[in-house]
Amino acid sequence: MTEIQLTDITKRFEDVTAVNGIDLTIRDGEFLVLVGPSGCGKSTTLRMLSGLETVTDGSIHADDRELTHLEPRDRNVAMVFQNYALYPHMTAKRNMTFGMKSAGDYTDEEIESRVAEAASILDIEDLLGRKPKALSGGERQRVAIGRSLVRDPEYLLMDEPLSNLDAKLRIQMRAELSKLHEELETTTVYVTHDQTEAMTLGDRVAVMDAGELQQVARPQHLYDFPANRFVAEFIGSPAMNTVPVEVVEEGDAVYAVGEDVRVRLPETGGLEPLVGRTLEFGVRPEDLSQAAAAADNRVVANVSVTEPHGDRMLLHGDVDGTLMKFQISARSTLSGGERVEFGTDPDRLHLFDGETGEALYHSSTPEQDQAAETAAR
Fold first, then answer.
1. pTM, entire model
2. Vertex 272, ends 269 and 276: CA angle to 5°?
3. Is the domain of 30 the same as that of 75?
């Protein structure tokens, strides 16, 4: 297993900076997911790790070995691509073994043993004699992963490997990838634009935007304590609601106040400097409830659209000129045109700087969350 260290990594294409000064440690045996919108630099970062893209500035180390300017063949790295990259005229087995002798000092017996082991892990023993055209999308992806495993790489790179699969197969393959990583414990870097994949697969998730890292943390920590508004709105489906408010002090309490918003903010430290400022108030759709509405805990929405999902219903509503979403019972009789009051979960409130997007306040802290989780066990 291998620890990978990226230090101030930058990649420029003429006057375009695709990746800008990334510092990141990928831990030994970790499954790290790089996630972000198209064009954020995540695939470019992966290609620099593989050696397929040169590094403009910075350095890459694997344990004590510097990889920055090494060719891909000298890095002992394997990569799984979005389009599988299988040779159509070769069998699955031949695709898995092609180039092994030129890339390393393997005997025929070692190659056979590695193919058999990889095929057993991936459950493709019966597919080794087939060519790609005779395989389903999921089977092709298993063969592509098997091709990487037979080389026993120091670390494994995956570039959106599930994006060509249908929704049902994608869910199945996510589970298989998680199980595979638990068995192999190979240091893995996985790129995706799908935040659901990121949340379900990653030991940690690195969120990128405009070539820069926004936050690196465990999936649940990202969801509960986003470092900025971009992370808050990117991680989670539907996204976190944000609406401009004034932070005001009334007696011994502090409130987030707008024309349709009046929510008392729990005192968890750091509120005093925010009094008197106009900020973005953040709350997730599932943390809003009609039952919690009260005089000091009120968000009033003019409902415009109802969106049934079977297990729940989403309401789209206007709050102070901002579109917000509210998650309610699937069998609710609410309809468009109604004006509805919601209350918030006081432990799940956030404030962001309106200009920089930086998170300035969370109504609970990681320490409180950990204490509550421990008490519930």
1. 0.88
2. 140
3. yes
